[in-house]
Amino acid sequence: MTCVSSVEGVKTKTRIRRAAEGQWLNVAIVVVTAILFAVAWPTLQLTHQVSPPIQPFVAALATFPFLLIRSNPALAWAVSAISALVIPRVFALQDGYDYPWQVVHILVMLALLAAVSMRAAIPVVGVAWISTVLLFLADTPGTNGRGWAVGLTAIVVFGLLIRWLVLSRRQLAQQEELSELERTRRTILEEKARIARDLHDVVAHHMSMVVVQAQSAPYRIAGMSDETRAEFESIGAAGRAALNEVRGLLGVLRSDGQVAEHAPQPGVQQISELLEGSRRAGIPVSWHTDGDPRHVSESVGLVMYRILQESLANTARHAAGAAVEVTIAYETPIASVSIVNGPPRRSLVSALTRHESTGGNGIIGMRERAQAVGGVLTTHLHDNGGFEVHAEFPVASA
Questions:
Q1: Nearest Cα residue to 260 out of 200, 317, 308
Q2: Residue 174 domain flag
Q3: Is residue 157 part of a domain?
Q4: Distance, CA of 174 to CA of 370 (rounded, Å)
Q5: Which of 133, 187, 346, 396 is most buried (CB neighbours < 10 A)?
Q6: So where does this one cross the membrane (predicted)?
């Protein structure tokens, strides 16, 4: 929903900008047409023998087609050309005036021909060009028609060049708009990927601990009544249902091409708390550390914490009751963490896994986190059913 709204926002801004530009152009066209009409009407008596009641209509035929120069230039040119063909044949010229049309009418025809060459279909451009050239050759006095033919051809060629230039710039603008939309989509996908990782690393881990404690309580605590066992079983069932819903949400949020982002919170200082909490949750975990954790950068420390957190959660889900050995080396220039668990205890496997489903994102997320800081993560299944996760990182992340 966020992605769709962002994309629509970019498109809406573009439409509003184009609509505002179009309104100003329409106002300018109306103003120019009014000025042309104001010039054509009083000067018509100087060029043609037209009775005063008819003068505004003839002036309108010469100038009003300009109103359509933006909306329908081909129709506007057709009206102007037909009026240019009719006017000199119906109304005689005044003595001393040689051209068959008013100067305003000529300017309107030239502007409309240029608009047709820039916006109309190419066949229409050809028809307009040839017809206008023939009209000027037929009606202009003396040899002026040849000069007009050259000028009209130059106008058409110039209009086509402008047309192709505008088309190329429009295509470039469309590509820039598509690039902006793609950047918006990519940013949102990266945010979704970060949310997916955080949900998996934080929520799924702690909920797994709740399920482990609830399901293993009857085996760890002696003398438990049936009512208490049922209560713990209910807690475990609710935890498993919530875990399945979280995994479904992760399936929606995760996407290809994720880019890792690192939260500033947990790091190497919180690893001991994580291990102690896992031991209190019933996981038989032991650990050994070497080196000075102060040499490890915050980003590497966060990745080490998340990998250890996910590995312990996986052990609780898939190897219930198995002993876990954790080895952490804060060495220079390479830091490492190893999590090795033995085979699960058979007495707990059926109780803890009969309702479990695997989400399939844990190891993938750990490997992505390791790669994000320039590290490498490997996994190995032992012959006795145990499992090992080993990761190495540069002390200062790339």
A1: 200
A2: no
A3: no
A4: 38
A5: 133
A6: 24-44, 75-93, 99-117, 148-166
* Structural domain containing residue 126: 2-141
C-alpha 152/C-alpha 155 separation (Å) is 5
What the block records as the tokens of 102 is 């008013």
Residue-wise DSSP of 329-393:
EE-SSEEEEEEEE-PPPHHHHHHHHSS----S-HHHHHHHHHHHTT-EEEEEE-TTS-EEEEEEE
Is residue 56 assigned to a domain?
yes
Helices (H), ranges, 64-143: 73-90, 103-119, 122-139
Q: How far is CA 97 from CA 29, 94, 138, 180, 378, in A?
A: 29, 6, 17, 59, 96
This prediction has a pTM of 0.45
285 and 377 belong to one structural domain: yes
Token pair recorded at residue 96: 């001393």
Give pLDDT tens digits along the chain (398 positions): 444 455 455 556 666 766 667 788 888 899 999 999 999 999 988 888 989 999 999 999 999 999 999 889 999 999 999 999 999 889 888 888 888 899 999 999 999 999 999 988 999 999 999 999 999 988 887 767 888 899 999 999 999 998 898 888 888 888 888 888 888 888 887 777 777 777 766 676 677 777 777 777 777 777 778 888 778 777 877 777 777 767 666 666 655 444 444 444 678 888 988 888 888 777 889 999 988 888 888 888 888 988 998 888 888 877 877 889 999 998 888 899 999 998 876 544 444 444 444 445 678 888 888 888 889 999 988 888 889 999 998 886 54
